[in-house]
């Protein structure tokens, strides 16, 4: 029987993963109730031996990454190098619902479909199961570079910069979770298992969907810009005691908010519109600076938010822990460990009203046994052919900007009919700033592809009623407004439940529905700073913190995780629920192990640029303008192989580089030596030579090289919109049973008014707005 308190308690999961992405996926599954069994070799999985350790002492129970990424799981020990171990695994496969792995199955030669026809197998790999890069070696920096993310991070006058958090692996882990639940949803209908393929590179590329789409349609190559943003102001600025995140938005509130700087010129006509502030970027900064340098960052944060501006500050880990908002929402939950005692740890990534997060410690090595239990058999049905896993699901999409639309775009890509509600007098900013181009922006086409567009003015009672009629016939509602906005329109959760008792509402506000800062505004720039995450990325310990800028997307991915979790629960129980997702908390979730290190060791993780705490690693100049190669050397033997590849075997005899410790001590000199070779090679040629020697090397791709990448071409990753044509970014994961279809690009404004409002809801033609220039005249008034 399904445990009403757990969304995924009907699932039994075998976790064979040994890297971050797979462990992140199964951490989510365990936290929402799935019985998750981690299979470890006799000495413990590799992550148990991964630093940093509690109190600096190695030990299988003291690895901080293991303690974070494996909460809620069971640990069983199995020697898969022995015949009896392999036989035991085959028996276990017959008894589970889901298997998650990241390469271990390649050497085991198991016929999983024969062992368990209803099994869902989620396979995570660096570059996918096919293509020229299939067997490439990779670390996080390799994947960050080859997915195109690294090219946009850092200073344009320096090398591209690796992100502090493991964005590539974490993105892939969340995508694997979404895909597994989609497969489970379809299996409940068809009775068939599935095989899911997650390429970490392709999952990470979803984070730069805008940059890829704009290159494919406009030829635009986005470059590194330090911490600058196209809009002004929109970055962190020095203040009295650190850095404040000053966002000039919502743009309609800027003029009133700008009065805080006590500079009359700043609110004058020259800077009244965004166009002027962009043109005179440096002058705006100089006018703001005197006031900022006289005030503290937390004072600035609250003062800006009081004026309805999305301001924040660059938070330390201590400030994250002490946040009144996070404390009020009990974001940190106590965890009891038999060796380490009681300590707080980051809690839920989102908060379903009926299926709360289960905060359980990571397991001791081998403390559990695998108990026999046959999985529930699902009868095969005549609905066995379902080309899309979410076929038949309808979503009403009230989201705007990026995080919310990305969440609903993921669901739309895999079959959910997603209807975007637009209010013409204040259109989504992603439609751009010019009335005559409202339907012509590639970023809009990409982020809202596979969706329908209808226009409703929710200030008008009859149009609110139309929204209610649509919700009665829908399954999921998603919004990312401030708490209270939906209720103000008469569309709060209590009303939605009356319209349809099993409705799912996913609310993706900036700070969450409760707490003293719940009404605060937030964009990715302030959320990344407030989460503490921005402080992890810099060229050195003393360097300026740099944004990685993927937070809107990762928050969107977590929004899709939330929707799928609630949908699975409804499928099992018939009950809907409300999910409260704080984007600040979802962002903070990406650095759970770093907060745990601070809690248990009192250590603030410091940025180390492109280097690695254990291996020898860097980003090196290659031939050509702004072309770069990343390289990770993980052992003495790999260092020797590198010396052979580059034609300098004598380097391996240099006393400065004899051991990994020696190379760390002389890392600056090592970097110069490596770059003396890479600078004579194209990044692609160097990568191919080094990968042929089984070394983790990768070129730092930009969107132009991604568009021509032979691996992505062979894997047919890029997609063509069926309705209008045009090339777009591909899908983040693949199903053997089918899923992921690009029907149409982001819709023209009100393109589906007739089909939805008239044909589906039965409204007369007179109900439809004219959408003429007079009605739309204020839609792009940026002030």
TrEMBL record:
SUPFAM superfamilies: CoA-transferase family III (CaiB/BaiF)
UniProt name for this protein: CoA transferase
Enzyme class: transferase
MF (Gene Ontology): transferase activity
Organism in which the protein naturally occurs: Geitlerinema calcuttense NRMC-F 0142
Metal-binding found in the keyword field: no
UniProt KW Isomerase keyword: no
E.C. no: 2.8.3.-
Keywords (A to Z) from UniProt: Transferase
């Amino acid at each position: 029987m399904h445990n009403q308190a757990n969304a995924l308690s009907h699932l039994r999961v075998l976790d064979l993963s040994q890297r971050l992405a797979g462990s992140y996926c199964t951490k989510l599954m365990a936290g929402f109730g799935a019985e998750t069994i981690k299979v470890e070799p006799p000495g413990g999985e590799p992550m148990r031996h991964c630093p940093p350790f509690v109190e600096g002492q190695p030990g299988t129970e003291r690895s901080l990454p293991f303690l974070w990424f494996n909460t809620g799981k069971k640990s069983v020990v199995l020697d898969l190098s022995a015949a009896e171990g392999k036989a035991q695994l085959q028996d276990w496969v017959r008894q589970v619902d889901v298997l998650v792995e990241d390469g271990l199955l390649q050497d085991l030669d198991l016929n999983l479909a024969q062992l368990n026809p209803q099994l869902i197998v989620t396979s995570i790999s660096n570059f996918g199961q096919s293509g020229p890069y299939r067997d490439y070696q990779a670390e996080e920096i390799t994947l960050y570079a080859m997915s195109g993310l690294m090219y946009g991070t850092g200073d344009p006058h320096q090398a591209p910069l690796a992100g502090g958090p493991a964005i590539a692996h974490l993105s892939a882990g969340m995508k694997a979770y979404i895909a597994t639940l989609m497969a489970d949803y379809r299996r409940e209908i068809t009775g068939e298992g599935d095989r899911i393929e997650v390429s970490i590179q392709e999952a990470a590329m979803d984070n730069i969907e805008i940059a890829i789409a704009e290159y494919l349609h406009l030829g635009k190559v986005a470059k590194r810009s330090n911490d600058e943003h196209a809009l002004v102001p929109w970055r962190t600025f020095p203040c009295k005691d650190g850095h404040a995140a000053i966002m000039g938005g919502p743009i309609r509130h800027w003029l009133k908010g700008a009065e805080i700087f006590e500079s009359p010129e700043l609110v004058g006509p020259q800077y009244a519109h965004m166009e002027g502030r962009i043109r005179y970027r440096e002058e705006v900064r100089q006018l703001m600076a005197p006031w900022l340098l006289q005030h503290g960052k937390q004072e600035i944060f609250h003062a800006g938010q009081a004026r309805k501006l999305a301001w924040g500050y660059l938070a330390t880990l201590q400030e994250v822990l002490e946040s009144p908002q996070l404390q009020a929402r009990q974001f940190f939950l106590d965890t009891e460990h038999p060796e380490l005692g009681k300590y707080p740890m980051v809690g839920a990534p989102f908060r379903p009203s009926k299926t709360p997060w289960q905060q359980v410690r990571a397991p001791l090595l081998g403390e559990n046994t695998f108990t026999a239990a046959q999985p529930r058999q699902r009868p095969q049905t005549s609905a066995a052919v379902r080309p899309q896993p979410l076929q038949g699901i309808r979503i009403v999409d009230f989201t705007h900007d990026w995080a919310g639309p990305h969440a609903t775009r993921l669901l739309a890509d895999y079959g959910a009919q997603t209807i975007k509600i637009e209010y013409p007098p204040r259109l989504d900013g992603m439609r751009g700033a010019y009335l005559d181009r409202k339907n012509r922006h590639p970023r809009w086409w990409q982020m809202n592809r596979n969706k329908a567009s209808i226009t409703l003015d929710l200030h008008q009672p009859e149009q609110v009623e139309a929204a209610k009629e649509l919700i009665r016939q829908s399954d999921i509602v998603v919004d990312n407004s401030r708490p209270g906005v939906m209720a103000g329109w008469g569309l709060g959760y209590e009303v939605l439940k009356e319209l349809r008792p099993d409705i799912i509402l996913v609310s993706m506000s900036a700070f969450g529905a409760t707490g003293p800062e719940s009404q605060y505004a937030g964009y990715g720039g302030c959320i990344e700073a407030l989460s503490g995450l921005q402080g992890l990325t810099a060229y050195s310990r003393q360097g300026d913190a740099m944004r990685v800028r993927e937070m809107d997307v990762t928050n969107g991915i977590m929004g899709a995780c939330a929707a799928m979790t609630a949908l699975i629960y409804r499928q099992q129980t018939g009950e809907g629920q409300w999910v409260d997702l704080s984007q600040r908390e979802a962002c903070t979730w990406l650095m759970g192990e770093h907060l745990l290190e601070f809690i248990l060791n009192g250590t603030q993780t410091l940025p180390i640029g492109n280097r690695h705490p254990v291996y020898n690693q860097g980003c090196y100049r290659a031939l050509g303008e702004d072309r770069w190669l990343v390289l990770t050397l993980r052992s003495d033997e790999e260092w020797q192989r590198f010396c052979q590849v580059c034609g300098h075997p004598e380097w391996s005899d240099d006393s400065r580089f004899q051991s990994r410790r020696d190379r760390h001590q002389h890392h600056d000199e090592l970097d110069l030596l490596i770059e003396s070779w890479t600078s004579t090679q194209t990044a692609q040629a160097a990568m191919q030579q080094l990968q042929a020697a089984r070394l983790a090397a990768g070129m730092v791709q930009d969107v132009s090289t991604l568009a021509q990448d032979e691996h992505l071409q062979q894997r047919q990753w890029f997609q063509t919109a069926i309705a209008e044509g045009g090339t777009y970014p591909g899908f983040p994961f693949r199903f053997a049973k089918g899923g992921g279809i690009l029907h149409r690009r982001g819709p023209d404004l009100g393109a589906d008014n007739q089909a939805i409002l008239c044909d589906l809801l039965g409204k007369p033609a007179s109900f439809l707005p004219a959408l003429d220039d007079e009605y739309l005249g204020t839609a792009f008034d940026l002030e």
